[in-house]
Amino acid sequence: MESIWVEGLVPGIDFCNHNVKALATWEVDSEGNLTGIPASMYLILAQAGKSSVETGTEIYINYGNKGNEELLYLYGFVVDNNPDDYLMVHYPVEALRQLQSADIKMKLIEMQKAELRCLLPTSLLDRGFFGTSTSSGEDDDNKKKHFSSYSWSGQRKVPSYLQKNVFPQEFLSTLRTIAMQEHELEQVASLLGEVGSSEDGEPSDAEIKSAIWEVCGDNGALGLLVDLLRVKMAELEEGT
């Protein structure tokens, strides 16, 4: 029988507060050899060299490398200057299924190996979503090569914000696909009909990205991204 793991608060263990430099950790006693109770849990000291603690010392455990949003919704608190904090932006699958030509767009997203969500470390957001680039010259050159390969005819130029955009291309590829209008979808299909790189006749992920970028650019994708960020802000404000 397959085990199903569900994350949540465990009675007794949940009395321990969270700290990244935890004094203790917990383990499961499957057979009950230590606790006398099968499938029970117990605490052990986690810091090397420590075999005991002084009376009155608070016992912390580490809840895991979680961002503040996850900590807030799961446990009801946030951590100041959380080194593991991130922003998650995603496009709901349920909303995708309600789009016109949803099946075609979902297939294109799958073929591009694109992602429906992205996790952005908050350290990337110190200067906003289009902050000053901290990438190396080599990284910038790779980005330009990556982007220039998207242009079918070479007419659509590399965007000026390329080195500043913190959102991964795997996520933006999804948004470009979702934001396509019906006439743009037809144009993309027409371009892809001209090629057949693989043996089964299906276009490659690079060819699909190239066709969509040539037809659509980023206008629709960035507009959709702004809408997703507004929804995200509303969710966070409501949750707090």
What does it look like?
- The protein is α+β, with helices and mostly antiparallel strands.
- It has two domains: 13-64, no CATH class; 86-133 and 146-239, no CATH class.
- It has eight helices and six strands; from the N terminus they run ββββαβααβααααα.
- A two-stranded parallel sheet has the order 1-4.
- The chain starts with 16 loop residues before the first strand and ends with a helix.
- The mean pLDDT is 81.
- InterPro entries: SET_dom_sf, SETD3_SETD6_MTase.
- GO terms for molecular function: protein-lysine N-methyltransferase activity.
- This is SET domain-containing protein.
Précis, in short:
By secondary structure, the protein is α+β, with helices and mostly antiparallel strands.
Number of structural domains: 2
Overall geometric form:
elongated
What is the alpha-carbon Rg in Å?
24 Å
What profile does the largest beta sheet have? Answer: 2 strands, parallel
Strand content: 5-15%
Query: Helical proportion?
Result: 25-40%
- Helices, by number, come to 8
- What is the arithmetic mean of pLDDT? 81
The tally of strands reads 6
Give the N-terminus to C-terminus distance in angstroms: 40 Å
Strand sequence of the main sheet, in spatial order?
A: 1-4
Layout of strands and helices, then pairs:
Layout: E1 17-18, E2 24-29, E3 40-45, E4 60-61, H1 68-75, E5 86-90, H2 93-97, H3 102-111, E6 117-121, H4 137-148, H5 169-179, H6 182-192, H7 205-216, H8 219-239
Parallel strand pairs: 1-4
Antiparallel strand pairs: 2-3, 5-6
